[in-house]
């Protein structure tokens, strides 16, 4: 994923032995938004995985996640996803309720990952 002139930031950056992954929306490869629930959460993780892979980051090396959700009730589904994806010891995580996200998305996830 390269920088888009409409989105002038890096998808992922390596600094101080860590990979910092920009907020990842629930987007399909064609750029359309995946709506609602677990499907949106999984799509956001897929976006995050693609972004971290650009600098060699891996899902199993995630140390911190922040989930931004437009409906705090999505937290329960996020907990299920979290348990499915990360075994003990799990990464640190924060869930923040927000009023709106880009493109009408219901979730955006950013991450800090141990660098390869």
From TrEMBL:
GO cellular component: cytosol
InterPro entries in the record: RutC-like_sf, YjgF/YER057c/UK114
Alphabetical list of SUPFAM superfamilies matching this protein: YjgF-like
Molecular functions (GO terms): deaminase activity
Family: Belongs to the RutC family.
Name of protein: RidA family protein
Organism annotation: Nonomuraea cypriaca
Organism taxonomic ancestry: Bacteria, Bacillati, Actinomycetota, Actinomycetes, Streptosporangiales
